[in-house]
Amino acid sequence: MGNLKVTMTDINGATRTIEGVEEGASLMELGKQNDIAGIMGDCGGGCACATCHVYVDQEWFGKVGEPDDIEFAMLDMVADVQKPNSRLGCQIKMTPELDGITVTVAPSSTY
Ligand code: FES
Question: Which atom of ligand 1 is nearest to the CA of 91?
Answer without folding.
Answer: 4
